[in-house]
């Protein structure tokens, strides 16, 4: 952290109490921030509940590093006079690249092939080419648009569905059912909300091609995880590249760990040095804008 220009700028302006470990409980989080006017939060596993806001009466700004705010009770924040800001689009390049890495890892069966070679085998001819295939983007925010560009760059046809359709976004927009039916790859780029929770479940998987691949770097609960496990186990879905899960860290006994057609990463799509510094810079800038009376990126 000491090497970060954004952090040095923060230290130059404000006294800072820095913690490099996640709070293990709600009580521990409250203990850390009870006297703080401003909190910068990096990881979505820290949950800012109604009780947190009730017991942290000095808090005026919660600056979130990241786009998602499903770990924050926004009505409770508002009722206690706490402004919440985020960093939209700051990780789009990093997460877009991660989506492409997951896609190619699943399509070319790279983790499985690597494991078999290390066991002394020599598997060949198991990969699938993505050029000429259809990439379906669900959600055209900054990350969705970036992955759409990368998909197009390797020769994929790109179609998209978004909650707020706008032809100016530059991609072919189709109904969600059409996207699920036609896509060889379905990639999710939505915020978690009451509207999107469980959005991809048994019915949606039944519409998708058995040869299709699902990519999820958004939030785990957007997908019905039990239904996903079922279609992967039975071969009704060819594979999945997953960076997010219902419970994180993924429990040791979780069935996804035993499914070879699933490539798993640890909610790390946006965790690169470049994205971390850019995100921290925006989160710090959000603090400065707030203190200067010009709040930016208010959720």
Topology of this protein?
Blueprint: H1 5-13, H2 26-33, E1 38-41, H3 50-55, E2 61-64, H4 74-79, E3 83-85, H5 92-107, H6 110-118, E4 134-138, H7 142-153, E5 157-161, E6 172-173, H8 176-182, E7 185-188, H9 202-207, E8 213-216, H10 225-233, E9 239-242, E10 262-264, H11 273-291
Parallel strand pairs: 1-2, 2-3, 4-5, 4-7, 5-6, 7-8, 8-9, 9-10
Helix pairs in contact: 1-11, 5-7
Question: What would a concise description of this structure say?
Answer:
The chain has helices at residues 5-13, 26-33, 50-55, 74-79, 92-107, 110-118, 142-153, 176-182, 202-207, 225-233, 273-291, and strands at 38-41, 61-64, 83-85, 134-138, 157-161, 172-173, 185-188, 213-216, 239-242, 262-264.
Characterization of this structure:
The protein has 299 residues and is α/β, with parallel strands linked by helices. The protein has 2 domains: 5-90 and 272-291, Rossmann fold (3-Layer(aba) Sandwich); 92-264, Rossmann fold (3-Layer(aba) Sandwich), CATH 3.40.50. 36% of the residues lie in helices and 13% in strands. It has 11 helices and 10 strands. The strands form 2 sheets. A 7-stranded parallel sheet has the order 6-5-4-7-8-9-10, sandwiched between helices. The protein has a 3-stranded parallel sheet with strand order 1-2-3. The longest helix is centred in the C-terminal third of the chain and has 19 residues, at 273-291. The chain is globular and about 60 Å long. The protein starts with a helix and ends in an 8-residue tail after the last helix. 39% of the residues are buried. The mean pLDDT is 95.
